[in-house]
Amino acid sequence: MTETAIQRRRLFRKSLVIPTEHGSWSWLLVPFFVGAAVAGRIVPEGYPSLLPLILILVGGLCAFLVRQPAAAWLRIRRGRGNRTDEPLAAGWTFGLALVAGLCLAGLMALGRVALLWLVIPFAGVLLLYLVAARGGRAAMRGLWTELIGAAGLALMAPAAVIAATGRVNLLVWALWGLMAAQNALGVLYVRLRLADTRGRPTNRSVALWGHVVGLVAVVMAGLLGWVPLLAAVPFAVVLLRVVWAIRRPRPVADVRRFGFTEVGVEVLSGAWILISYWTW
């Protein structure tokens, strides 16, 4: 290994910086692009400047990535990790937090003060994750931790809308609810299939009723005029999918392929939701 490669390894370690949950990337990026595209539809004077959206994307990615080194840093300080990794974990934690803070400051300078409405729920989600990290890997992968985390990542949808329009309204919160529900149902389905794969007992009715409640909630929101009624279609499709999955154990033959398939489902569902807004 060359000296340059050794130096690069000292400054970056994938396991210390990049989240291991590959599906979580789609739970962040799909809501962002849906929110950005929906904003382009509702801005009356045409599509806004891209700078606020770029700042939201960069800041959101940094805020998303900071949890991995921050959790590792907390574990090391509690004596549960390699002490030699502490400077690297601390450096990435503060570096990513700094970039996220600078992006937020830039957005404030551009007049996107309404984004502060999202800081509180996001900070709550990040705090929950860090508290769970202190409790160990089992706590971090608990059902409620994953559900709240998925809802937190969906904040990228309203963040994109606010960045583009500078306003907070019912559309912002309704879109968040829609994307948060999509992310949360993905968590329930993935957990069910992985439990079957690993031969672990699981409460199958939780996944079923979660999907039922999700579909009913979206339909009700559509009938009230809060979201496009057409947006309920992907929720109906994934309900049929979970009905198939709960009938008997459905182990996953290839976990990697299963992960990419779920990313595809997330992308297609997001695209349908976007189309439903554009035709609303």
Query: Number of helix segments?
Result: 14
The helix content is: over 70%
Q: Sheet with the most strands?
A: none
Give average pLDDT, whole number.
86
Instruction: Indicate the structural class.
Output: mainly alpha
Give the N-terminus to C-terminus distance in angstroms: 57 Å
Give the overall shape.
flat
The amount of beta strand, in percent, is under 5%
Can you tell me the residue ranges where pLDDT is under 50 for at least 5 consecutive residues? 3-8
Tell me the Rg in angstroms.
20 Å
What string, H for helix and E for strand, traces the elements in order? HHHHHHHHHHHHHH
Q: Count the E strands.
A: 0
Could you please describe the fold and organization of this structure?
This protein has 280 residues and is mostly helical. Helices cover 76% and strands 0% of the residues. It has 14 helices and no strands. The longest helix is centred in the middle third of the chain and has 28 residues, at 170-197. The N and C termini lie far apart (57 Å).
Task: Give structural attributes.
280 residues, mainly alpha, 14 helices, disordered N terminus
Strand and helix layout:
Blueprint: H1 3-11, H2 14-17, H3 23-42, H4 51-65, H5 67-77, H6 86-109, H7 116-134, H8 137-140, H9 143-153, H10 156-165, H11 170-197, H12 204-223, H13 233-246, H14 255-278
In short:
This protein is 76% helix and 0% strand. The protein has 280 residues and is an all-alpha fold. Helix 9 (143-153) packs antiparallel against helix 11 (170-197).
